[in-house]
């Protein structure tokens, strides 16, 4: 038997509707042992799940990823949590908010759930018709709570209380949609025109933050003006703290999907955080505020005796939004949100489960947002509930997370740019066929236009980057590395074939590229 190698080793078929996976026997045995010990301690009660999903926060923002104090916004609470668990350095979101969030909750690529770009200003379409992690955990006996940003469709059947959540307290769309047209700095031509203000007010998008209970119509809590928006992360955190305290007395496991408002543009941090970062910039003040929110939620778990029973995942839904710089995140990688360069999709991800995941680990194994659904179900002992009536791209990474120094169960990460196949990563190599943001400025600096305003660049022969030697993706290595042809181009063709009937792509909100 030869040593394991992420490029040379073969995956194992899981099912016709599943992405093949690496099976690491020793990691799996250790994971099984740990899960059995959890059952010994906790009986039949399954672990709680807390996902803290930040918005547009970059790979480099947290101190434990090399940012923090070095970029003018220390993150002691997140760093402390990372020290108690596992830091993933190759975790991948999708290029923007909605595709990432839908992928996390469905275990499916945007080409399958159909949310290929964010819906804006009341645009129709959303998560309706998909099977969500919340729904599957709910069927497994969990209390399911969503708090904060949704952005997975405003239509009733796509709202959280209709796709698996018992309760929702937050807003349905995205931060800028509530405030940009109210801010005279960005939209003087609307703010100073009664006619245009009335015109926006009459557009059919929800302008309030809302509360909803399972199966019921939502109720509006308060209109999101700029002063209200500045309070949202505090109010949402308090709501989640109350939820955690209530759950401590209950006999059911729970899933809390806590989505922060920050740090999506435009950032108006709570007044108690204004100027509190060394950078004294609203984005950085917001990072300080978000860090304290992580601290508060973790402290509440500790105070209520739930910390050892809870899987905690802290991550961000995409890379920096550079079109609004300097109200923007930091990444050491190339380009930004909206792109499939590493800067757009490589995000921080801290996973902690005290007593189950060894502290102080860092691991560069590939982990995809779509792995969260099967992995959480695997950790919860509900792996049998992964849907079999549709293609699931996610892989159960339980053994990767639980085994000290574990190996990723994922061989390939697939980068899609709307309906165009963009790139493929295997091991340290990334093969790129289509990408945005190319051009002199983007090549020179991550502050280039990139993201949503970049051009589409097609590479007829593809480019190949070695992400260890060249993490900024500037030197194509293709002509020297043709031996990888089979692993990369061959796999690309096999991946595209997974969209053949009966698993045809779905388009709800798309990008025609
Ligand atoms: Ca986002």
Considering the chains and any ligands shown, give keywords for the structure.
single chain, 513 residues, alpha/beta, Alkaline Phosphatase, subunit A, Arylsulfatase, C-terminal domain, 16 helices, binds calcium ion
Task: Summarize the structure in words.
This protein is α/β, with parallel strands linked by helices and 513 residues long. The protein folds into two domains: 25-175 and 209-411, Alkaline Phosphatase, subunit A, CATH 3.40.720; 420-497, Arylsulfatase, C-terminal domain. The chain is built from 16 helices and 14 strands. It has helices at residues 25-42, 76-83, 97-106, 110-113, 133-139, 175-179, 188-191, 194-201, 226-248, 282-303, 342-345, 372-379, 398-402, 440-444, 450-453, 485-497; strands at 48-54, 86-92, 143-149, 167-171, 208-213, 219-223, 254-259, 310-316, 346-352, 361-368, 412-417, 420-426, 429-436, 456-466. The strands form two sheets. It has a ten-stranded mixed sheet, with helices on both faces. It has a four-stranded antiparallel sheet with strand order 11-12-13-14. A hairpin with a 5-residue loop joins strand 5 (208-213) and strand 6 (219-223). It is globular and about 70 Å long. The site of calcium ion (CA) has 6 residues, from loops.
Distance between the termini: 44 Å
CATH superfamily of the largest domain: Alkaline Phosphatase, subunit A
Strand line-up of the largest beta sheet: 6-5-4-3-7-1-8-9-2-10
- Content-based structural category: alpha/beta
Bound molecules: calcium ion
The sequence of SSEs as H and E is: HEHEHHHEEHHHEEHEHEHEEHHEEEHHEH
Share of helical residues: 25-40%
Largest sheet: 10 strands, mixed
């Amino acid at each position: 038997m030869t040593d394991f190698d992420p490029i040379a080793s073969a995956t194992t078929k899981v099912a016709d509707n599943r992405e093949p996976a690496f099976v690491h026997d020793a990691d799996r045995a250790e994971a099984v042992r740990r899960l059995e010990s959890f059952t010994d301690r906790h009986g039949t009660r399954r672990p709680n799940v807390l996902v803290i999903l930040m918005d547009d926060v970059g790979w480099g923002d947290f101190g434990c990823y090399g940012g923090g104090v070095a970029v003018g916004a220390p993150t002691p609470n997140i760093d402390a949590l990372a020290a108690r668990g596992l830091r993933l350095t190759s975790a991948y979101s999708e290029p923007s908010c909605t595709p990432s969030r839908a992928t996390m909750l469905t275990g499916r690529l945007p080409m399958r759930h159909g949310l290929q770009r964010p819906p804006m200003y009341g645009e129709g379409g959303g998560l309706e018709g998909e099977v969500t992690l919340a729904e599957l955990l709910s069927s497994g006996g969990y209390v399911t709570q969503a708090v904060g940003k949704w952005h997975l469709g405003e239509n009733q059947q796509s709202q959280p209380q209709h796709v698996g959540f018992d309760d929702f307290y937050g807003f349905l769309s995205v931060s800028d949609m509530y405030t940009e047209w109210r801010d005279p700095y960005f939209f003087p031509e609307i703010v100073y025109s009664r006619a245009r203000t009335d015109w926006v007010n009459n557009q059919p998008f929800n302008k309030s933050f809302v509360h909803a209970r399972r199966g019921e119509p939502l109720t509006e809590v308060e209109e999101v003006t700029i002063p209200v928006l500045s309070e949202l992360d505090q109010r949402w955190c308090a709501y989640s703290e109350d939820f955690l305290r209530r759950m401590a007395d209950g006999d059911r496991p729970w899933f809390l999907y806590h989505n922060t408002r920050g740090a999506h543009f435009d950032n108006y941090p709570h007044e108690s955080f204004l100027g509190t970062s060394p950078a004294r910039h609203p984005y950085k003040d917001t990072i300080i505020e978000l860090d304290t929110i992580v601290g508060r939620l973790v402290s509440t778990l500790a105070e209520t005796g739930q910390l050892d029973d809870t899987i905690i995942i802290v991550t961000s839904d995409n890379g920096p939004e550079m079109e609004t710089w300097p109200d923007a995140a930091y990444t050491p990688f190339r380009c930004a949100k909206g792109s499939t360069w590493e800067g757009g999709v490589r995000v921080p991800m801290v996973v902690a489960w005290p007593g189950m995941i060894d502290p102080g680990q860092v691991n560069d194994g590939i982990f995809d947002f779509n792995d969260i659904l099967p992995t959480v179900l695997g950790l919860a002992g509900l792996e049998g509930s992964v849907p079999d009536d549709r293609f699931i791209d996610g892989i159960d990474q339980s053994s990767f997370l639980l085994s000290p120094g574990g190996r990723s169960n994922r061989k390939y990460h697939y980068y899609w740019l709307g309906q165009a196949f963009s790139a493929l990563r295997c091991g340290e190599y990334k093969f790129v066929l289509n990408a945005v943001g190319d051009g002199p400025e983007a090549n020179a600096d991550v502050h280039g236009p990139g993201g949503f305003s970049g051009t589409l660049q097609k590479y007829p022969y593809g480019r190949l980057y070695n992400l260890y030697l060249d993490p900024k993706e500037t030197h194509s290595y293709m002509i020297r590395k043709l031996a990888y042809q089979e692993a990369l181009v061959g796999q690309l063709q096999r991946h595209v074939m997974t969209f053949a009937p009966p698993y045809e792509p779905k388009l709800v909100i798309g990008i025609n590229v």
